[in-house]
Protein: Aldose 1-epimerase
Amino acid sequence: MAPEVEAPGPLTELPPGPLLTLSHGAVSIDVAPQAGGRIAQIRVDGIEQLVGYGEYGSEAAIAWGSYTMVPWCGRVRDGRFAFAGKDYQLPRNLGGHAIHGWGFVLPWQVAAQSEHELELVLELPADERWPFGGRARQRIALEPRGLLLEMSVTAGERAMPVVFGWHPWFRKPERLEFEPTAMYPRDESHVATLPLVPPGPGPWDDCFVNTAPVVLHRAGQVLRLTSDCDHWVVYDGTAHSTCVEPQTGPADAFNLGSPQLQPGQQASAWYRMAWD
Structure:
């Protein structure tokens, strides 16, 4: 059973707490296990890559570092969905919807640590916040000029829907190379809908179908992003940041049709950041 924890909401201030620092070659990272198991900062050749806590007014849990979204990504419309013939109501925490799951606001436990790798685990809630339980695990592995992020989710004693991914707040690039094949249109509630449409012009806060690398150019560096996920959200509506978020399904996936896990079944995905 998950511990009884009162989780902060996405707009609640969430300081980093104690940090774990790892380095390898040109890359160093600060990880904040107590602040949603997020990466608080990435430095490559000494250049900071992420919007840090307290920068640009980004004290809110949703607005800094690079964190996991689990057991869902983006907004679940009105916090409501049906699964296995039963209706569920999640706590609504942003604009009347439920956003980004619980992984980014709950403390993670350190399962293993070595010179260049870190593994964190989270027992998902098994209460009104998320009645299905389950477990999430993330592995953070440093490379001489890169970072490999891996995540897995394992169902507990109950079958459950699941969509998961990553939400990095990159410092604003001078240029973004992104060529998705399709986009989920948003309605007046700012929630993804079907059918898919051709990608439209930015600025974006949208979910796309994409299998190509995404490339960011900033401060003389080239950052190449790849993943085995075929859904990506790009949010570039702020002047100081751009979020590039691979995930295993679309926003509002629980209502649009999401993957499911049977009891004890596991799903996994990876996300690589590589700097030229």
